[in-house]
């Protein structure tokens, strides 16, 4: 998707990052960034008011598995007046870069689905 602001995982700030994970529930449960907010792509329009509580003056960084769904979400958010940035390579790159991943299942090893 051309024209969507994009940042690589290595360019993301280590702290103070507002990360929106738009993957499905099973993907989120298997492994996600510790401080991410989970809003599946299909629920984003109905839950957009939740973003107002998250975003101060910092951009919303949007992540999915590899970057496709988050690019669509980023384009929609920016068209709706938000400052959103797609995370290139998604959670696969997040994990490859050595960023923290946690699972929702007790005792389960986090994995990126």
TrEMBL record:
Pfam families: Rhodanese. Signal peptide: none annotated. It comes from the Bacteria. CDD domains: RHOD. Residues 13-103 form the Rhodanese domain. InterPro entries: GlpE_sulfurtransferase, Rhodanese-like_dom, Rhodanese-like_dom_sf. This is Rhodanese-like domain-containing protein. It comes from Amycolatopsis acididurans.
């Amino acid at each position: 998707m051309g024209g969507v602001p994009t940042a690589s995982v290595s360019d993301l700030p280590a702290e103070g990052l507002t990360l929106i994970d738009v993957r499905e529930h099973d993907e989120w449960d298997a492994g996600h960034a510790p401080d991410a907010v989970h809003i599946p792509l299909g629920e984003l329009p109905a839950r957009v008011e939740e973003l107002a509580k998250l975003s101060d003056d910092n951009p919303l960084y949007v992540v999915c598995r590899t970057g496709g769904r988050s690019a669509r979400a980023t384009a929609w958010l920016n068209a709706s007046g938000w400052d959103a940035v797609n995370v290139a390579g998604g959670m696969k790159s997040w994990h490859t870069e050595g960023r923290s991943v946690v699972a929702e299942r007790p005792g389960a090893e986090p994995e990126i689905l």
